[in-house]
Amino acid sequence: MIFSRLGVDHRRARQARWAGQAPPGPVRDYLGSAPPGPRTDVSDLRLLALDLETTGLDPRTDRILSVGFVPVDGLRISLAGAEQLLCRADVEVGQSAAVHGITDDALAGGIELRDLLERVAAALTGRVLLAHHAAIETGFLSAACERELGVPLPITAVDTMELQSRVLRSHSGEDLPPGALRLGTARAHLGLPRYAAHEALTDALACAELYLAQVDRLSGGRPMTLKALQR
Amino acid sequence: MADAEIPEVTDFLAEQAPFAAVPRTDLERLARRMTVRYARRGTLLMSVGRGNDEVFVVRSGAVQITDDSGTLVDRGEEGTAFGTTALDGRPSRFDVEAIEDSLLLVLPSAAFHELATAHPAVGDFFSQQRASRLRHALQAMPHAQRRTAVLQTRLRDLVRREPITTTGDATVREAAQLMAREQVSSLLVVDGGRLTGIVTDRDLRTRVLAAGLDSSTPVSAMMTADPVTAGPDDIAMELILEMTSRNIHHMPVVGGTDGRTPLGMLTSTDLMRLERANPIHLVGDIAKADDLGTLVVLSQRLPRIIDQLVHEDATADGIGRIVTAVGDALEQRLIGLAERELGPSPTAYAWVVLGSQARLEQGPGSDQDNALVISDDATPADLPWFEALARFVVEGLVACGYPRCPGDVMATNPQWRRPLREWRRTFTQWIDEPVPDAILRSAIFFDLRTVHGDDTLVEELREQIRRSAPRGTRFLAHLARNAAANEPPLGFFRGFVLEREGAHKDTLDLKRGGFHAVVEVARVHALSRGLPQVSTSSRITAAAGAGGLSDETAADLHDAFEFIRYVRLLHQAKQIRAGEPPDNFVAPSELSSFEKRHLRDAFQVVRSAQQTILHSHPLGHVT
Hints:
The complex is a heterodimer.
Chain A: H1 2-21, H2 26-31, E1 46-54, E2 64-73, E3 76-78, E4 83-86, H3 97-100, H4 104-108, H5 113-124, E5 128-131, H6 134-149, E6 157-159, H7 160-172, H8 183-189, H9 200-219, H10 226-230
Parallel strand pairs in A: 1-5, 5-6
Antiparallel strand pairs in A: 1-2, 2-3, 2-4
Helix pairs in contact in A: 7-9, 8-9
Chain B: H1 7-15, H2 24-32, E1 35-39, E2 44-46, E3 54-60, E4 63-67, E5 72-76, E6 81-82, E7 94-98, E8 102-108, H3 109-118, H4 120-140, H5 142-145, H6 155-158, E9 165-167, H7 172-182, E10 186-191, E11 194-200, H8 201-209, H9 219-222, E12 224-225, H10 236-246, E13 250-255, E14 261-267, H11 268-274, H12 279-288, H13 292-299, H14 302-311, H15 316-342, E15 349-354, H16 355-358, E16 370-374, H17 383-399, E17 417-419, H18 420-432, H19 436-442, E18 448-453, H20 455-468, H21 473-485, E19 508-509, H22 511-528, H23 536-545, H24 551-577, E20 585-586, H25 593-616
Parallel strand pairs in B: 9-10, 16-17
Antiparallel strand pairs in B: 1-8, 2-7, 3-6, 3-8, 4-5, 4-7, 10-11, 11-12, 13-14, 15-16, 15-18, 19-20
Helix pairs in contact in B: 1-2, 3-4, 4-24, 4-25, 10-12, 10-15, 12-15, 14-15, 14-24, 15-17, 18-20, 21-22, 21-25, 22-23, 22-24, 22-25, 23-24, 24-25
């Protein structure tokens, strides 16, 4: 108990140091704020479901093309906070356009990466990031932040892909069939409607809805903490 | 930067019936005001007696709606919407349960009200959910159930013989001979098989003998050309209404492809056979009465006629029109007697009735509401004549059983006996500089109808109202507020709210938050659109025609208005038979369970109409 508290204090101290290094603005504010605590119950937990479209899977070499996000307040998705931002990029989108449908022309109308990061940081302040395979989102956001602003972006996240494997294992205890954890498959398994994939906001909303269904399954209506979600 | 569109939500809404008519940009804004909820199978989303503040749309999954007795009301999948009947903390009348794992789009009530105001079709869509049930109830009411009720008889079934006809070029003598031979009191005049006129016994007396015309005069010169006619599918009730209000005794029934082929003649005697106490005769007798004493005696026949009509299963609307026709006849006759006593009027004037009588909705025991509009030519010396007229008529009406207006809205009050220009000023004040208290009292002046005198004076006022009321935003807002001020007597758990104290303790007031609220709502609809209609049902129809109400909402309001008034009539007929003064307070124990259930539905319609009118005429911040 004491150790874990020390661990938290240590992280916060490091985050505060980074906050001192970041230029004034939403990123600095974010670094100076605390995410929801591990014992927060899901019914009070504030999250930001977020999806990035990128040129590839490597945060060091690939670029963010767009971001879509929508807040989740407890067990409700607040559509009022839904956003989708395109990033102006110097790189050629090339092949990946076939996947996410974002063309170079569309990107030319986007905003600077730094602006995008600041918008995300502002929306994420006081919230836990929620994504399907969250490592991609946390990795890309942090790497981009380090490049643009000189500080990494530590992010507390909940991963719906992880949650889905728990939902499925509690059923069978067997190895999962290939593809069972993909967003669309996971949604179908829980009776959620089919969405056109690969637009950042649609995927973020799809992820948020999936989360509501997963929490319902995993908690069975009993209290459940953030910590239990991240187990 | 514009807010992001949420295509998965907007596209979905655009495909659902209630939102189909809403433009894309509005749907995008609507989507952003929604939240999304997940409900596992078995979750109770709404429960009977509990209020909520949200409207739900099933995005995926399915829900089941049951009423308080557990009866399945509806089952809906993707696209089903619910919650509108229990908004703003009103008790829900249904349980709504997710019967599959469901994803729900949730709209806060404020956003729903704004949407329904901006797009009336949306609000109307939701009130339809109640509509079919209420309509079903009306159809099951006794007056419709017993289609054989005599007043529902089709005229084709009443015509007992071929029409007796002559032609326009026949002489008056030939016509008289034909009438004597056939033993009829009237003839139809035809030209090439088409009806062109009518000749009656009375015409032979007054237009031929008394006028000294030669018996070789052609019929076409003395007949009534293009007479009022009825169709074979009209019902006896309508015929009685028509003959009563026009004070005529012969009605040709015409049909055929051109609608002018004579099928027969119906007389007041034919209708007499239908029923013993006939309002046509009462109206005729009133018109002939020579003194106040006779009118007092005649007016005592009205309660019996009402009782009879209720027994014959006439509609509340029909009975309202008949009671009004009798009231009009009495008032007209009293004015005639007054003019005989006071001498001719010094200048033009109009005797105006207000409120329920103006709307053709007078009920038994209604008090009098009347006013005098005098020509601007009147000199101060002329005014005493009008004062005497007012006193004569108002006192006469009291003697005939029409109590004085408790609010003193009568021509005897100098405030309501004035030249046209002052009336114009008063209406301008009411509409352009509304004072809440004054509006409450002035509302009935916006239902006005001339029963005697120069209607062009009144038409000027009506024209002024039609022109300026639609612009009177604050006036309309106050009027809408008044219309919504008296809530239907419905409480938690679908129970009735009974009067707590006083003479009517433990009864239900059918008027205040009931049919009278419909009257007030219809008035706001009509005034805000500059519609000339005065009766509530014609206002509802006209408002629907002008696009202010959907056909379904209009049908709901018609039904609710008729149902509540019908229940009141049954109650009043019972009181009349027991020798008690008729009122609007009915004890729940008097009502059958059928009546109770559907009265609740009707009150629910009233409530939603009140909400809608309130939201479409907000008072704003400036009061």
